[in-house]
Every structure is written in structure tokens, then in C-alpha cells.
From TrEMBL:
SUPFAM superfamilies: PRTase-like. Pathway: Purine metabolism; AMP biosynthesis via salvage pathway; AMP from adenine: step 1/1. Catalyzes a salvage reaction resulting in the formation of AMP, that is energically less costly than de novo synthesis. It catalyses: AMP + diphosphate = 5-phospho-alpha-D-ribose 1-diphosphate + adenine. HAMAP family: Aden_phosphoribosyltr. It comes from Anaerosporobacter mobilis DSM 15930. This is Adenine phosphoribosyltransferase. Residues 38-166 form the Phosphoribosyltransferase domain. The lineage of its organism: Bacteria, Bacillati, Bacillota, Clostridia, Lachnospirales.
Length: 174
């Protein structure tokens, strides 16, 4: 039986020289890879008490929705500014070259609700750090953050210190 790592295609020097791009689409386009990815994330949540799965667009939707469905939980999308139709809360965060803003619907998380955040990859951790702040601003509690892949060389976990962070696959580099 193949391991999840076997489904990830690594592309050298993309998008620039010296970078190894870990392509999650190769996991998605293989039915066994996709099943293994979803099952692996759910395994990391089996003993966690939570109410909501939250996923940032767009790949957090891809992995978060089937987990929420299979575990009979609600799903909350975190979106780029201007994409959500109702009243929102927002948080700005740093990108490599500038800033971005992530939003949640103001009524998406109620005080006391326990939230699991799911995304495909942790790199620098900025997006998830902003989302954690929004969850807490709304009165929710982040009880676990689960990633399919982690680029350890970018040290994204440092921005999430004090939170329960798990990654299915860890890569040493960037």
C-alpha cells in the first residue's frame, strides 16, 4: 500500500530556482490518494472534541468539507476580502510581498464553540495565524490545526505556538 507521500509530486525549481513545489493536486486526482488524505486528517481528529471545521479558501475547502461531512460537523469557510456576502470580521496578515485580508462571517462561530482548522499546507503560517485570531475574536476556541503537508524550513509553527498543530507529511525544506 502506498503512503500519502507517494501521491505528492515534487517539482524542482518551481515557482523559482531553489524551491521544491509540493503539488497537492496529484493527491486529489488519484482516488486512493484523496481517500488516504481525508482519512489521515480524520484520524488526527478522532479523539478531539469539536463543533466546527474551518477551512481557508481554497484548498482548506477541499480537505475540510469532506472531513466535516464524514464527522457530522459544520463547515465554516475563511475567504479573501470581499468574497463573503454577509457581515464579516476581517484580519490583515503579511505575505512575502505585501499584505492580504482574510474574513469570516460575523455569525459563523458562536462563543464557546470548539474549532478545528484544516488546510493543505503550512508554510509561513501567516494565514492561519490571522484565522486563529478571528476565531478567538468571535469567542471560539481553536482546539486543533491540521495540515496535510508542512514545510518545516519556513517555520510556520512559530506563529502558531501554544496551539495543537498536526501535519500528516513533513518536509524539511522550504
Amino acid at each position: 500500500m502506498k503512503k500519502l507521500e507517494d501521491y505528492v509530486v515534487s517539482i524542482k525549481d518551481f515557482p523559482e530556482e531553489g524551491i521544491i513545489f509540493r503539488d497537492v493536486t496529484s493527491v486529489l486526482q488519484d482516488r486512493d490518494g484523496l481517500k488516504l488524505a481525508i482519512d489521515s486528517i480524520m484520524e488526527e481528529l478522532k479523539d478531539i472534541d469539536f463543533d466546527i471545521v474551518l477551512g481557508p479558501e481554497s484548498r482548506g475547502f477541499i480537505f475540510g468539507v469532506p472531513v466535516a461531512y464524514n464527522m457530522n460537523k459544520a463547515f465554516v469557510p475563511a475567504r479573501k476580502k470581499g468574497k463573503l456576502p454577509r457581515e464579516t470580521v476581517e484580519m490583515e496578515y503579511d505575505l512575502e510581498y505585501g499584505t492580504a485580508i482574510v474574513e469570516l462571517h460575523k455569525d459563523a462561530i458562536k462563543p464557546g464553540e470548539k474549532v478545528v482548522i484544516i488546510d493543505d499546507l503550512i508554510a509561513t503560517g501567516g494565514t492561519i495565524e490571522a484565522i486563529v485570531k478571528l476565531v478567538e475574536q468571535l469567542g471560539g476556541e481553536v482546539v486543533r490545526i491540521a495540515f496535510l503537508m508542512e514545510l518545516e524550513g519556513l517555520e510556520g509553527r512559530k506563529k502558531l505556538e501554544g496551539y495543537d498543530v498536526v501535519s500528516i507529511i513533513k518536509y524539511e525544506g522550504k
